[in-house]
ER membrane protein complex subunit 6 (Triparma columacea), 129 residues
Amino acid sequence: MMAPGMDPMSGLGSNPTSPNDSTSGAGREIFNAQVAQLNSIRMSDARTFMSIVSGVSAGIGGTTGMGGAAVFGVCHVATGMGLMVLCGMDVKSYTGLSSWFSFLSQDIQKCGMSFMLFWTLFYGVVYLF
């Protein structure tokens, strides 16, 4: 097994004298770190956008306290599950993360801050002013 990101054509990490060895690279898994980083950035952007949308809807809806936190939790998990479905439930080949829990909890702090900002902003605009 080769290390992630290693060129399969380099011949490193495999036995070059094996009879099943070929120079075509067929059957070898290739992990491209740049593509995984681009995928992570796009998924982060989708999560951030959905947290802003859920913050706006929670603020306009007038939810306060733990109800607002529940709105964020449900929307964050639903967005993560939607992204997992788009990945074909194989998040390791798209992002390099090995577990579904780490995928669902990714960017939770950043998205939580965006949610709080728009939740309080729209709650204040609609109900206080």
In short: The chain has five helices and no strands. The mean pLDDT is 83. Residues 33-128 form one domain. Residues 36 and 95 are 5 Å apart (CA to CA).
